[in-house]
Amino acid sequence: MFPHCAGKSFRKYQNQKKMSTLPDKTVERLSQYRRNLLICDAKGKEHIFSHEIANIHHITPVQVRRDIMLIGYTGTLRKGYNVKELVALIGEILDKPEGQNVAIIGAGNLGRALMKYFKNRREKLSVVAAFDNNPEKIGIIYANVEVFPINQLKQIIIDKKISIAIISVPVDEAATITNALVDAGIQGILNFSPRPVNVPEHIYLEEYDMITSLEKVAYFAKNKN
Amino acid sequence: MFPHCAGKSFRKYQNQKKMSTLPDKTVERLSQYRRNLLICDAKGKEHIFSHEIANIHHITPVQVRRDIMLIGYTGTLRKGYNVKELVALIGEILDKPEGQNVAIIGAGNLGRALMKYFKNRREKLSVVAAFDNNPEKIGIIYANVEVFPINQLKQIIIDKKISIAIISVPVDEAATITNALVDAGIQGILNFSPRPVNVPEHIYLEEYDMITSLEKVAYFAKNKN
DNA sequence: TTATCTTTGTTTTTTTAATAACAACATAAA
DNA sequence: TTTATGTTGTTATTAAAAAAACAAAGATAA
């Protein structure tokens, strides 16, 4: 085509591999790399070495280079990686071009913390609704997010094209809420309630249990030295 | 020059060597088993099979049996595991006999959610103080936990024999707080702020980043087929 | 020029975690 | 009694993740 123009950026995309095979842990790290790369970028840093990224995240430079290799990006010898380019490529991998909408179920302390947390965080990932069964909370707007009653769950999920839900309800309600979310056609669930929930095979489920994390810290802290 | 970004020099990569023979993931699962075993016990169930535990946690019975083997417990053929005995043994493994005290740093929405979450949850793991730098919050008691000013951090950690801290402060304060915690002689830290913090080798650090979890769900939800 | 140093990109090896396989054995049924 | 069934405990195998090893190449200095 334009062989004389086929420089580095051309090669970059030749190396690109199928992204559907990206390992779990690599996806997690890419998300974290991006967040800190954006801070570096905001401070005017143009290039970054693998060992700098590694230091921020307490991992080895090899791990960083391997992750970056997996998404097919190529840095410059002696200069490292171009921060803006790397951020853009991670975005191509992680984000859906048309964006994804998120609902938070349960507007208690955890739910409100999540709303504040995610406010304006990602352009392609927006919290567009919250749900609660406490009548006093209905209609209130936290961090730009309106709280709706749970009986409108399905309708609003469909209307607002919500594909991802975060469960932050008391543990006894988690199972019922999950069924409602499945029924409403949700595609991914992040469950913060401490009891595991059941979803059909086609829905992606991620569970995180704070109590377990604390007990794990307690165990390893007591067994150190 | 770029104070946030990592320096150029290589630093020693801390090789988190485990002092215990129990695998990381097994510790996590034991914590979860116990929680659900306690519910079973409360319902009067005396024995439980590995496949029942497995169903609750969406894992295989083999995994359950293997974990239980690792802590040296033995069930009964045809009857399964004695619930009370298993709970007691997991307690011996995970808990410190004299108990461990916990502080929550940051009494915002997340901090308050954590206080409610952990209230009366474990006999051997008690949240005994919270800290915040907002004068209006000082002295307030959430979920039985008093909020102290951050400048009393070290004194109260020592006085109340606190060995574990949960960081739930805004991201920019996390590094300072971490240094204060290290200085106060903390043994384990659970960091919920989205930026990794640095601690010396002898302190156990666990980090959890909600934004990463959400982006991971978004990635795998969009790539599911 | 040549040698040296630094950093990337990729392959190989090691470690950790999960799954599969199966012997042993208690109980129930034939 | 003998056979079938279901469950545990353990070993063997596979898969996933991390770390190590090292070639290649650009920059710098002698």
Write up this protein.
The structure is a homodimer of 225-residue chains. With 225 residues, chain A is α/β, with parallel strands linked by helices. Chain A contains nine helices and nine strands. Chain A has a seven-stranded mixed β-sheet with strand order 5-6-4-3-7-8-9, with helices on both faces. In chain A, strand 5 and strand 6 form a beta hairpin. The radius of gyration of chain A is 21 Å and the shape is globular. At the A-B interface, helix 2, helix 3, helix 6, strand 7 and strand 8 of A face helix 1, helix 5, strand 7, strand 8 and helix 8 of B. The structure holds a DNA duplex (30 and 30 nucleotides).
Name the structural class of chain A: alpha/beta
Most strands sheet of chain A? 7 strands, mixed
Quaternary class = homodimer
Helix content of chain A: 40-55%
Radius of gyration of chain A, Cα only, in angstroms? Answer: 21 Å
Largest interface: A-B, 78 and 74 residues
- N-to-C series of helices and strands of chain A: HHEHHEHEHEEEHEHEEH
How many strand units of chain A? Answer: 9
Overall spatial form of chain A = globular
Mean pLDDT of chain A: 90
Instruction: Trace the largest sheet of chain A across and list its strands.
Output: 5-6-4-3-7-8-9
Number of helices of chain A: 9
- Kindly, what is the distance between the CA atoms of the first and last residues of chain A, rounded to a whole number of angstroms? 63 Å
Strand content of chain A: 15-25%
Unreliable residue runs of chain A: 1-19
